Amino acid sequence: MYENKFSSWRPWPRRDEASGVEFPGVYALAYSAQNIAGKPFSWRKEIIYVGMTNSVSGLKGRLKQFDNTIVGKTGHGGADRVRYKYRNYGNLVKRLYVSVAPFKCEPESNKPKDLKIMGDVAKFEYLCFAHFVEKYGELPEFNNKKESPKYSLTTGRK
Fold first, then answer.
1. Distances from the Cα of 127 to the Cαs of 64, 132, 133, in angstroms?
2. Whose CA is closest to 78, among 44, 49, 107, 112?
3. Which stretch of 15-24, 35-44, 111-120, 146-155 has the lowest confidence by average pLDDT?
4. Which of 48, 86, 112, 153 sits between 20 and 30 A of 95, alpha carbons compared?
5. 115 φ, ψ (degrees, to nearest 5)
6. Maximum alpha-carbon separation in the chain
7. Cα–Cα nearest to 130, from 8, 29, 2
8. 74/66: higher pLDDT
9. Can you list the alpha helix ranges (DSSP code H) found in the chain?
């Protein structure tokens, strides 16, 4: 059920090329020594973060916020936790892959159809969390807020 909603894995620098990134959705990030680019999405222990967006800027905008944060700016809490562990952006992005599950809708609309789809996005993120925990016994590393410190909070930088 989950696997068929996600795109194939893409290298982080090619994240904007995924089909449907203009829409809201859920995304999974994997940190892998193996080249998984082009491989179909599958649940793997290397998944370090699962996130979602209902923003008008879609997945593309949210992934840009993530990138801005891992490069040294602010704007994404999960990315701030990734940055704490992986402080060298160049080394990180050589092994970072993304897969997206877009949900086609108009996020600025108040039409019941679009509101329901945006609710489906939020629900799907939590279903993904539950599936990951069922499979691996814990949340992806950087979704675990208790165990994964934020760079900005440990260095005093915002």
1. 24, 9, 10
2. 49
3. 146-155
4. 153
5. -65, -40
6. 44
7. 2
8. 66
9. 58-71, 77-85, 89-93, 112-136, 151-155
Pair 50, 128: CB distance under 8 Å:
yes
What does the alpha-carbon distance between residue 13 and residue 30 come to, in Å, rounded to a whole number?
13
Phi, psi of 65 (to 5 degrees): -60, -40
SS3 call for 115: helix
Name residue, tokens 């090619």. Answer: 14
Among candidate residues 54, 43, 46, the one with its CA nearest the CA of residue 6: 43
Burial class (CB in 10 A: 0-12, 13-18, 19+), 53: buried
Instruction: Give the HSE-up count for residue 19: Cα atoms under 13 Å, Cβ half-sphere.
Output: 4
Say how many CA atoms lie within 13 Å of 152 toward its Cβ: 13
Closest CA to 101 of 152, 58, 48, 38: 58
- CB atoms near residue 117 (< 10 Å): 20
pTM of model > 0.90: yes
Q: Encode pLDDT of 113-132 as tens digits.
A: 999 999 999 999 999 999 99
Residue 32 in contact with residue 41, Cβ under 8 Å? Answer: no
